[in-house]
Amino acid sequence: MATATPLQIHNVVTEFLATPKKLLIDGKWVPASSGKTFDSIDPATGEVLARVAEGDKADIDLAVHAARRAFESGPWAKMSPSQRGRIIWKIGDLIEENTEEFAELETLDNGKPISVSRVADVPLAADLFRYMAGWATKIEGSTIPISAGAFLAYTRREPIGVVGQIIPWNFPLLMAAWKLGPALATGCTVVLKPAEQTPLSAIRLGEIALEAGLPPGVLNIVTGFGETAGAALAAHPDVDKVAFTGSTEVGKLIVQAAAGNLKKVTLELGGKSPNIVFDDADLRHATAGAANAIFFNHGQCCCAGSRLYVEDKIFDKVVEGVSESAKKIRVGPGMNPDTNMGPLVSEEQFRRVRGYMEAGINEGAKAVVGGKTVGNRGYFVEPTVLVNTNPKMKVVQEEIFGPVVTAMPFHSVDEIAAEANNTPYGLAAGIWTKDIAKAHSLANKLKAGTVWVNCYNVFDAAMPFGGYKQSGWGREMGKEALELYTETKSVCVRIN
Ligand code: NAI
Ligand code: MG
Hints:
alpha/beta; binds magnesium ion
């Protein structure tokens, strides 16, 4: 375990945690209509961090009404794209100004190392808002030369309307940013449902969104559980679109719930991403990259490189290198400045990951490193490298969502694409080679929304992200995300 003195939590954070957190509805912070609350837990200790309003169907209803009013007739509906862009930019600025506060909240609530929250989660969230702020003034239709006669035909891209957004706990602030950025840039209004494990940074984001000048009702935040608040939002008849990130299992429930009013749906779901190392790769980079691909964020990444395929000649060497990296990872509370890997997010997730480790070993896999839990307080597990697996094992088939990689040898470039694609998922993939022809031709064959070549886990607000197959519908970030928050209207005018 990492042993440095934990960071002193700043006063602003202590004060924020000390008051019960409420729902944001129509620009006001209100308790849940039922009066109920739930606890947000510090996964490093298992202790209560804050009490949070437990929103339910009734609160979702109020929030959707507020969002509808704001969309149809509030100041937001009349605001120019330029004014809208300035507010979104300001949200980015305010996130940046409060980096330390956001980083501490994220680390306390989610468990991730403070060193990571500071340089990844918080700045990437700020950057996403700035990128999307620029788009507010650039959402254009086109003029279309139609052949039907003398007509002027053009398209308008109009905001889709009231959007329900349901987000997960692995990057709480950043996932809120990915979802809110394009919704606000296009002029939609939002009801956001943060994950019950990690509601705090979204609540703080709500505060700064109001400070930035977002009018009442444009962003409503209903904290609560998936089966109640989340399900009510996905099914709500006055929501025009639902955007969801989380498990493939719940993604399918969202699709069913959305069928009632045929609201539009975008989904960013699970993955079991292949990371492929050829024997002509720069081995130092490839080995460090393979470790980063699975151990970043404790493996709690939808795009985690959880199936490591290594060309047989260099298999032992790469496995040894990744295992050495795993041994060097300092596991400990996220608030320790020298921690590299914090606890998993929750007891449920801890049990699930431990279950996979045990299942792998019981089915005959060997842990070269790791395979066990760490300590007896909080939800810590060891970074784990499994070998001697076969394609039928649960650990090879299913998303573990923890720091557990299965390493498997392969023999030729001809066989690897089929093997890499042999999963219901298709979110991401990695390729490590110095042969550019091999890299590009394999990139074309992989059924994955993102292919990283000689790198992994590179994200940018401008680069679309999303999944093939059961990894999802639609894309987040980049220009593509905006298209999924607009409707196209064709206008056809007789001109003779
Ligand atoms: P989940 O899919 O249950 O939760 C994600 C979000 O959906 C949360 O906000 C939750 O409250 C909400 N939700 C849950 N049930 C719902 C329902 N019936 N209707 C509407 N919303 C609902 O994921 P969970 O249980 O936290 O984790 C389970 C597994 O899901 C993980 O082990 C991992 O494999 C996967 N997962 C994938 C993520 C990704 O980034 N693609 C993120 C989180 C989890
Ligand atoms: Mg769940």
